[in-house]
Amino acid sequence: MAWTKAKMAIVVGAAAILAAGTTTIIVKKVNQSHLSEAQNFYQSAMKHHMAREYEAELIDLNKAIELNPKFADALFSRASLYCAALPMKQRDYSKAATDYSQFLNLKSTDYSGRFNRAFCYEELRQYDNAIADYTTVIEGNTDYSNLIDGKDKSLAMAFHYRGRAYQRYKKDYLKAIADYDEALRLDPKIEMVHQHRGQCYEALKQFDKAKEDFDTEKTR
């Protein structure tokens, strides 16, 4: 009797293992199906984007992300819609910042995701967060490999925008000037930096330097 019970236990245990294995296979198939479907929605969204059909693009991106919440490209694209491409009344910088945050959880060294989130933080008046993101772009392990403008020009832009944040929101003109100096060192042809640095010199009553910067900007 004891041996019979033992054999029954073995059979039941084996059946449970087989059932668990079958469930795992089914889950993997379902997940793979979701990923494939999410990719299809993303491709459709990109077609809408090329046609400037941004509301239709948003619908497809929502579906893609619902099927695959870790779809980095879809998160980035939706964030970019919320903060730039959609009509002004439909833009939502809070949603954009949330999507960029999710994206950065997946690709923490991406330049564009962090730079764009900093811009969203500025629009949300979260200036310390914006400066922190620009600083991470400048000082962190940032990936510049996919940028058309290359490292120096992209880094110059980060210095420019952080300097602008120091100037406009913190009224810290010395830090702003230091960032503008670095931006110009990296990209001497960058636009508006002489104008902004001149404004800082003017606020510090260094009028000769301010005039020099304003005159330089006019000749560009």
Features:
mainly alpha, 220 residues, 10 helices, single chain, disordered N terminus, Serine Threonine Protein Phosphatase 5, Tetratricopeptide repeat
Brief overview, please?
The chain has 220 residues and is mostly helical. It contains 10 helices and no strands.
Question: How do the helices and strands line up, and which of them pair or pack?
Answer:
Blueprint: H1 2-50, H2 54-67, H3 72-85, H4 93-106, H5 111-123, H6 127-139, H7 150-170, H8 173-186, H9 193-203, H10 207-218
Can you give a write-up of this model?
It is built from 10 helices and no strands. The N terminus is likely disordered. Helix 3 runs antiparallel to helix 4. It is mostly helical and 220 residues long. The protein folds into 2 domains: 107 residues, Tetratricopeptide repeat domain (Serine Threonine Protein Phosphatase 5, Tetratricopeptide repeat, Alpha Horseshoe); 102 residues, Serine Threonine Protein Phosphatase 5, Tetratricopeptide repeat (Alpha Horseshoe).
